[in-house]
Amino acid sequence: MLPIPPLPLSIYAKALKPLLTSPFDSAADPCVDQIANNSSKVTPGTLFAAIKGAKADGHGFLRDAVQKGAVALVVSADYDGPLPSGLPVLRITDSYFAWAIVCETFFRQPADSFNVHTVTGTNGKTSTAYFMRHYLDTVKPGTKTALVSTVCCDLGAGPEPSEHTTPDALTLQRMFTEMLYHDVTDAVMESSSHGLHQHRSGTLKFASAAFTNLTGDHLDYHGTMENYYQAKKILFRELLADGAPAVINIDDPAGARLVSELKKERSAVRILPISFTGRSDAFCSLRKLRLAPAFSDLEFTLDGHDAALRLPLPGAFNAANCLTALCMAYGTGLPFNALLEASAGMPHVPGRLQAVPLASGATGFVDYAHTDDALERVLSSLREVLTPGGRLIAVFGCGGDRDRSKRPRMGAAAARLADLAVLTSDNPRSEEPMDIIREIEAGIPPGTHYLVEPDRAKAIELAVQEAHTGDILLVAGKGHETWQETREGKQPFSDTEILGRFRNKILP
After folding, report:
1. Beta bridge pairs of residue 160
2. What are the tens digits of pLDDT across the range 56-73?
3. N or C: which end of the chain has fewer CB within 10 A?
């Protein structure tokens, strides 16, 4: 990627004008060579943005930034502490949004040069994003796509590991610049509630968007479900281009509410309600679904078209995510029949209901389900394809230093839908694994038979010992991840690799 030429501070002030609490004084207009919101990254010529984050307040590092050569500062309007004299200061009303605007200004708004499509919701974001990319690649002539997802990122030169669902503002703009360098025409990305709340995409207007669902998660950050919902709503209220399709699942109560509110508040958005329960008032409605271990048959109505397709992926949630992506693609103008044909070649998403045959005759699956709703969905789908007499076994845990409220709900879901649950660790981070497991146990009804093994590799082996011909074994929570995060940091670990050891090995 080519070096980024410097810009005068007045250009940043102009971009930040909607957030400024006082006019920019052009008497001091230094040249900005770099930008930073971490004082350790400041070099001479840097514009330093102070952000009051969840763990640290950047305003406490203003002096350090100036000593290292910052030429201007961006500070919150409500900051009443001391400010270094002699430097221009931009006071703004929203630190996170201001930082995102600074980042996109530094990189010259790279995403304005191509279409960006996005998916938000608690569950289904990754699969829907993958499926949308497949439709664009297959159906839209002359397309070169990019992907920013939980599983991986592809900026136009091949897949790379991903760190976050939605990268921080600086990383995201750097990614967009890389996409521009590789002549990308369309990008598909996931939008997390954190990313939306922090306005990480800046002033970007998305070409299409989808809302999958809203269930309990991330309350450690948002505090309440209402705050969580409002963070998701930002995408459709503020970040979607006029006339762009908004594909919204109205079976979900939050989705139905979102449609109702958008009709009153944002008439410029083209709302495409979708239903998986046969609702006649939906733009797209799934009428019939037949599931098998390796595929799903869908019959549905979309924009007045009666249609059917065979998806080479199992599970009701795969069917739902496929229809969501299909509506996004159709909403952007891609032809209906070509989308149906493209569905037959839909790729498998790594770590999403990924099948691993076992030597015992059981079938193993690895899935990323790490919320109670996601676990319930995947267990329900697997139970529907379970052979008569077969058992459904689930290995799962719950992440440490994250939303604790979902732990007993996950225990309750597994107790209700699995014949045997094996409770174990899932990225315990700084917490004691057994403390997390005890909170999961709180949701399991008395008298329910389950097993506990905090060592995840041993838990998988224990479940394999329990699984016989006709059984289905689900290892849930980590999916595509290739590490386990403990107090000692990230250690190499892959559910797929551990379970794959038993493809040709029968345990006594």
Report:
1. 153
2. 899 999 999 999 999 999
3. C
